[in-house]
Amino acid sequence: MDMESKECRMRRRPMVGCQVRKLRTDRGLTLAQVGERTGLNVGYLSQVETDKASPSLETLAAIADSFDVPITWLLMDAAPPPRVVRHDERRLEPLPMGGQLEEVDGGYARGLRMVEGMMLPGMTTGLMTDAGEEHHLVLEGQVRLRQGEFVADLGPGDYLVWDGAFPHSAENIGDCPSRILICTPGPNTISNSLSPYARARQEK
Q1: Which residues contact 145 (CB under 8 A, 6 or more apart)?
Q2: Cβ atoms 55, 16 nearer than 8 A
Q3: Which is the CATH superfamily of the domain at 87-203?
Q4: How many C-beta atoms lie closer than 10 Å to residue 201's C-beta?
Q5: Torsion of the alpha carbons at 162, 137, 97 and 104, rounded to the nearest 10
Q6: CB 154, CB 172: distance < 8 Å
Q7: DSSP β-ladder status, 169-172 and 143-147
Q8: Which end of the chain is less congested by CB atoms within 10 angstroms, N or C?
Q9: Which fold has domain 3-78?
Q10: What is the average pLDDT across 98-125?
Q11: Is the pTM of this model over 0.85?
């Protein structure tokens, strides 16, 4: 048996029986009623609910339609488990001249990364770039964001989004430390995602 055949044989198939049974019973339906809605026989539906049958996508779609839910609802057991990152579990990276960046998402995010930046009064990052959209939400303090000729002074609750591929900078223009939540495309480790802030200041 070649490696590809072995991997196919070992591949885990999603178990949908528990979700199918739960949705059916939550709606007060019998197997016969689901069979009428889907055109599937009761014996086969029973095998689906006990994970003795491996339904096709077409069959799963028919079952999901009978419950009036998206097909993904039947695949909950195959979904990655939720993760919680406590505030004191965030990894930190200090910023030159004071301040720091905290990894809000714990490095678990796949298509998005979230960091919280803290800058001391008068601090600036210097020019930096990042791939894709950058979303900024000011949590505390007063922050000035620059990109080319564009300048915006933001306070708590203010939001800004721009294309991070173009050089930009951030500056704390208030009298108190500022905190800003930053969301950008991921994934990345904290060192990769946060170091542009540090490098920008060091290169200035």
Answers
A1: 136, 151, 152, 154, 160, 162, 168, 169, 170, 171
A2: yes
A3: Jelly Rolls (2.60.120.10)
A4: 19
A5: -110
A6: no
A7: antiparallel
A8: N
A9: 434 Repressor (Amino-terminal Domain) (1.10.260)
A10: 84
A11: no
